[in-house]
Amino acid sequence: MAEKVTIADVARHANVSRQTVSNVLNSPEVVKEGTRQRVLAAVETLGYRVSAAARQMRTGRSRLLAVRIETTQDGMNVFDRFLHGLTESAARSGYRVLLYAAGDDRAEIATIDQLLGEFEPDGFVLTSTHHGDPRASWLAERDLPFVTFGRPWGAPAAGHPWVDVDGAAGTESATRHLLGEGHRRIGFIGWEAGSGVGDDRKAGWSRTLAAEGLDAGLTLETDGSSAQGQAAARELTGRGATALVCVSDSVALGALQVLPAVVGFDDTPVAAAVGLTSLGQPLAEAAAHCVDLLTGRLSGRPAAAHVLLTPSLVIRKEPRS
Amino acid sequence: MAEKVTIADVARHANVSRQTVSNVLNSPEVVKEGTRQRVLAAVETLGYRVSAAARQMRTGRSRLLAVRIETTQDGMNVFDRFLHGLTESAARSGYRVLLYAAGDDRAEIATIDQLLGEFEPDGFVLTSTHHGDPRASWLAERDLPFVTFGRPWGAPAAGHPWVDVDGAAGTESATRHLLGEGHRRIGFIGWEAGSGVGDDRKAGWSRTLAAEGLDAGLTLETDGSSAQGQAAARELTGRGATALVCVSDSVALGALQVLPAVVGFDDTPVAAAVGLTSLGQPLAEAAAHCVDLLTGRLSGRPAAAHVLLTPSLVIRKEPRS
């Protein structure tokens, strides 16, 4: 590589002081427009690049956003799409994504604490928020910038920025789709009550049936597995259900072994592979909003407090199973 | 948070100079054992943590390993498992994973160049190596530490460390499995010739049939889609094939619409969902080896030049489609 261009080289080339170059790079609003343009031209001509370490020492900013990498046991998740969107959106704003793994909330907090000491990320993106989630309050108490992908379930007064997908709106559109196909006895296969995401998805189904004056009693809880989804579908069809809205593609995959009129949630590759109608989350958009809310806070820009996105129903005509 | 403990606090507490503390943290071999223990005790007592920026200024090390986040169009990939393994293994060695996105090799090199200027990663993990891959030579020419997940296809003399999965051994075990079930006319559905990974997977199938004196002519190339997989399966069964080894789960999913004796590659969530027998790559192990080879080079430890792992056949009895 060519020899490193220093801030002194830029200053000499633009005929300004090193402090002015630093101001242009770190507090451009204090520099006159003409000077700013001259310095930026010198930066470009010389190919000056700010060393992360030097910049961090000077500005206290690492330009790193930290996020936990998620996994699920059945691999039927779409977190990789969110992460890809986050990486691309962060880069467009001059930030990079730092990954960490953690087995549970407690381990995640310990890891965040360690990262703060070692890498000093400028902000954090928390995913999979849930009732009694200690992570957001831990960060809030320390006044650390963060955004959550997921609402502050059970803590609606939490003042932090968040982005989420409207699960109830999703299952409402799924239920309306099945009503449009002539179904009247539409069941719901969910997770155990008490999960914010699961209860929200169930609410959209039940309110839609209630609005039509139809029975919203055909529902069962599962552990989220395809096996329990299949068993629940068998019981609900035994009780007269002709169509089922499901809390996840995993559950829906099991239900699909019992009857064809099934809608899943998340539009995973598995849904596409087996021809399952499902609700797709706008994950790239959600990731972009997360970056926007977080970098907005970091740069003092006023930004929306939260963003609620609507999932899209992906209708597939011929389930294969 | 408590006020930050500085290197000066540690020096005072251990009754040594700041240079000695720095030596203990960065070049422990130059410090006497007794002094080293006293300093480390002070570090622990005071809860001193090295700031990344300060350490990087001092040591020239960022403790960051950079890797591109991959996506595939059909979402039927297992990169997220590799990335999870990489994140965990890196953390165990005191490194963190920095993500970047890039659309092609040229964009990836530009992004790496930019990262070098901005974040100075200590090393790079390249994935999806292929014939004529310019990335490895770009890094090698600059003497930057890196490891590839994937062999240096077409450049066997490349001296860089690599980790790969033995695709030919995988399709050999798939072919032997089908032979054991009584099949004699076993076909192969691949990608277009010229792909290192695809040609390797085909080679294991053809050499196994050749060793048994059986016909290895039942083979077709596809674009990797399920649709072309299905069409190829139809043609190959028309030519007498009773079983098929496939280059990917995506292709196998299409073939499964035509006949039940199909083996895929990658053991994706889709394979599990539809009951497809498939070859699973040991991705956590591969990621751990990548970190080991790279951190070995970074710390001057002698390390293996490369590691070739064997995939496992995951046999599923009842395909659903």
UniProtKB/TrEMBL annotation, chains A, B:
Record keyword Transcription regulation present: yes
Domain HTH lacI-type: 5-59
Designated name of the protein: DNA-binding LacI/PurR family transcriptional regulator
Chain segments annotated as transmembrane: none
InterPro entries associated with the record: HTH_LacI, Lambda_DNA-bd_dom_sf, Peripla_BP/Lac1_sug-bd_dom, Peripla_BP_I
PANTHER family assigned: HTH-TYPE TRANSCRIPTIONAL REGULATOR GALS, LACI-RELATED TRANSCRIPTIONAL REPRESSOR
Entry keyword annotation includes DNA-binding: yes
UniProt GO molecular function: DNA-binding transcription factor activity; transcription cis-regulatory region binding
Keyword terms of this UniProt record: DNA-binding, Transcription, Transcription regulation
Domain of life per record: Bacteria
PROSITE patterns per UniProt: HTH_LACI_1, HTH_LACI_2
Species this protein is from: Nonomuraea endophytica
